[in-house]
Each structure stands twice: as structure tokens, then as C-alpha cells.
């Protein structure tokens, strides 16, 4: 004896199980804290000077490529660490100060590395690229 089974499925596209559109947060350019970053950049100048001297000595005594490698490796590591520290501070309890201080210290070191690299290497690289002559 054959069995006749029929299944009817109704799918509703509205109701309490349909996810709502997520609320759009502020755009990235409105979240940038200009005063905070400017203050850290100014404070980082005390660390950027010695690091720029180290990069300049490597550039002059070894090679320009070696100085770029020596500058970019810490920059990359500090950028990843800065991202992790910012996420840690954003997810931490607002009453905890340690994640905020760690994030600020990492951003300070990142600013020091960026400014030291910007002060030391791009002009020399441009001179090498345009003229092919090493400055005396």
C-alpha cells in the first residue's frame, strides 16, 4: 500500500526572528581623537630623536636598505601591538586604567617610530632615487 506524504512549509519574511539592521556607528574620521594623537606625537619627540640618530648611523655606516629594514620591522610590530592594545582598551571595563595606559604607551612608541623614520629616511631615499649619488 503506497503512502502519500505531503509537507507544506510556510516561510515568513517578517516577524520577531528577522534580524534588524545594525545601528551605524560614527564614521572612522569622526572617531579620530586629534588632540590625543597630537599630544602623544609631541611627547614622542623625546624618543624619536635618539631613534632617528640610530637610523641615521645605520643609514650612513651600513646601507639605506638596512636602515629601512631596521625602521620598518619595529613599525610593523608596534602597529599590530597598537591595534591589539586599542581593542583591549575598548573592550575593558571603563573603570580600569591599566588597559588605557598600555594603549597610550604603545601609541606613544608608535608615534616615536613613525616620526623618527619620517625625519631620517625619506629625504635620503629621494636623493638616492633621483640622482643616484650618495650625499657626502
Q: What is the secondary structure topology, with strand pairs?
A:
Elements: H1 28-31, H2 34-43, H3 45-61, H4 64-91, H5 98-120, H6 122-131
Helix pairs in contact: 2-5, 3-4, 3-5, 4-5
Characterization of the model:
By secondary structure, this protein is an all-alpha fold. It contains 6 helices and no strands. The longest helix is centred in the middle third of the chain and has 28 residues. The N and C termini lie far apart (101 Å).
Task: Summarize the helix and strand pattern as letters.
Answer: HHHHHH
* Structural class by helix and strand composition: mainly alpha
Strand content: under 5%
What characteristic shape results from the CA principal axes? elongated
* Rg (CA only): 27 Å
Number of helices: 6
Kindly state the mean pLDDT as a whole number? 89
> Into which percent range does the helicity of residues fall?
55-70%
Counting DSSP E segments of at least 2 residues, the number of strands comes to 0
Biggest sheet: strands, sense, closure?
none
Amino acid at each position: 500500500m503506497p503512502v502519500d506524504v505531503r509537507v507544506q512549509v510556510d516561510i515568513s519574511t517578517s516577524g520577531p526572528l528577522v534580524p534588524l539592521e545594525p545601528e551605524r556607528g560614527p564614521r572612522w574620521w569622526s572617531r579620530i581623537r586629534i588632540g590625543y594623537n597630537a599630544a602623544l606625537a609631541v611627547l614622542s619627540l623625546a624618543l624619536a630623536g635618539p631613534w632617528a640618530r640610530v637610523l641615521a648611523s645605520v643609514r650612513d655606516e651600513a646601507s639605506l636598505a638596512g636602515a629601512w629594514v631596521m625602521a620598518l620591522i619595529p613599525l610593523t610590530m608596534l602597529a599590530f601591538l597598537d591595534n591589539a592594545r586599542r581593542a583591549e582598551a575598548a573592550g575593558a571595563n571603563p573603570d580600569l586604567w591599566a588597559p588605557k595606559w598600555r594603549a597610550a604607551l604603545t601609541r606613544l612608541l608608535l608615534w616615536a617610530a613613525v616620526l623618527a623614520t619620517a625625519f631620517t629616511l625619506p629625504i635620503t631615499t629621494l636623493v638616492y632615487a633621483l640622482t643616484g649619488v650618495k650625499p657626502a
